[in-house]
TrEMBL record:
Keywords: FAD, Flavoprotein. This is FAD-dependent pyridine nucleotide-disulfide oxidoreductase. It comes from the Bacteria. Its cofactor is FAD. Residues 341-448 form the Pyridine nucleotide-disulphide oxidoreductase dimerisation domain. The keyword Phosphoprotein does not apply. Pfam families: Pyr_redox_2, Pyr_redox_dim. Signal peptide: none annotated. The keyword Lyase does not apply. Residues 7-319 form the FAD/NAD(P)-binding domain. Belongs to the class-I pyridine nucleotide-disulfide oxidoreductase family.
Amino acid sequence: MTAENVDVVVIGLGPGGEALATRLGKAGLSVVGVDARLVGGECPYYACIPTKMMVRAADALAEARRASQLAGSAQIQPDWAPVVARVRDEATADWNDQAAIDRLEAVGVRFVRGFGKITDTDEVTVATSDGDKVFRTRKGIVLNPGTDPAIPPIDGLADTPLWTNREAVPATAVPSSLIVLGGGPVGCEFAQVFSRFGAKVTIVQSPDRLLAGDEPESSELLRQVFERENIRVVTGVRATKVDYDGAFHVSAGNEVLSADQLLVATGRTRDLAALGVKAVGIPDDGKFITVDDRMRAADKVWAIGDIAGTGAFTHMSMYHADIAAADILGEDGPRAQYHAVPHATFTDPEVASVGLTQAEAEQQGVKVRTALTKLPESSRGFIHKLGNDGLIKLVEDADRGVLVGASVVGPGAGEILGALVVAVHAQVPTTTLKGMILAYPTFHRAIGAALAEL
Ligand SMILES: Cc1cc2nc3c(=O)[nH]c(=O)nc-3n(C[C@H](O)[C@H](O)[C@H](O)COP(=O)(O)OP(=O)(O)OC[C@H]3O[C@@H](n4cnc5c(N)ncnc54)[C@H](O)[C@@H]3O)c2cc1C
Ligand SMILES: NC(=O)c1ccc[n+]([C@@H]2O[C@H](COP(=O)([O-])OP(=O)(O)OC[C@H]3O[C@@H](n4cnc5c(N)ncnc54)[C@H](O)[C@@H]3O)[C@@H](O)[C@H]2O)c1
């Protein structure tokens, strides 16, 4: 088969791949963007955007329920139909990516729908509905394949009509009861959404706490809020068997949990062998592709996004895209650094953090000093009253006198975190931070209270 010569092929057009292809196209390179599914990847169609629309709706219900104690009587009749309509019409255009394809083509990028595989050094073969297309690349190949939901090998699970995020996002009805397998960000966000819309929800999480990558204090606070909202949280237990007879029956620990629906949110996976990475010397038996600080994975091969293993977030994929694009264009761009990576889980309260947790800092041999303040004890927390659950925890490198990590739980925690991202990123001395004037009465003013404890 004759190969077409192009400058760059981008395999997988997640948020990073789409941004990178756009930038290279604008710079005048001949770029082929390949995606087997939808241009934009998981985030706009099955993840960040539609789930945060669901969260927005669920939060509106929670605030309306709080009104009766703060502002008078409010009649609430949850209705999933507006959520279904927003997700279908506003977030995903009914899971149609034509607008994204048009945007790419407008900057000269050629889009090919199909499954891309590296078949030789500098060569990509795309399996399309019209047969294979082969491209030879002058400048290189960028891998942005993202991840699929991982389905754990639990006896009886595989053949059931389980949900992952890809079925939960387009769901047109709220199940009356739901078991959520996995208490990470995906599991926690969906659990609270469906619970607030009326489902009886149980989370089964194998580690001993929710959001196991966050601070233990954040996990514990979220568990308290969830239990207060009648979400059952079962931790330290692994599901061993699933039976389906029209309802799901999950054996976990000493009990069998039953529910109408099962949502599997136990992490993500990608088959590297199917991507053909071995052809360019990249091991294909791991979970991630190792990259350097310019996102280089092999000679003339770059890997960006979740697959690089530096944090599975849209902002990370976009960050990688900028760095790899600059390298491909021969620009002297910044190198990747990861000492101040932020993330927010959009539960209510939100759980957000940047940099190292206390445990991570201690593992790295940092002489750690920590401080913790509770938001209900702040003026703004006192005023806010219902829904004021929250905390701010700071992790300081006591020798250097700078913050190396911070966590915020609370209303708008992802926004409050912004100030702490600046502090950790720029390594602002703690003494300088202590001199800041923080507006009264804001939630972020509690950062000052935490700093005073250091
Ligand atoms: C439910 C949920 C909620 C989330 N919420 C947030 C959030 O609020 N904030 C946040 O920052 N992150 C969130 N994330 C994570 C976020 O979705 C990902 O980190 C983000 O999509 C970046 O992924 P990526 O760029 O690596 O690729 P992806 O978005 O996974 O896209 C990869 C693309 O590559 C394609 N592809 C793969 N292999 C091939 C191949 N061989 N050939 C052709 N095409 C291929 C796929 O079809 C896909 O379109 C969430 C994730 C989930 C599951
Ligand atoms: N707001 C956000 O930024 C956001 C939201 C959702 C997802 N994400 C990203 O997407 C990725 C995937 O999220 P996720 O929540 O699916 O994965 P995760 O790996 O973060 O959490 C899954 C949890 O399920 C547990 N688990 C695994 N197998 C289990 C089993 N058999 N039974 C019970 N528990 C089990 C894991 O130990 C883990 O604690 C994450 O890396 C996250 O960064 C980000």
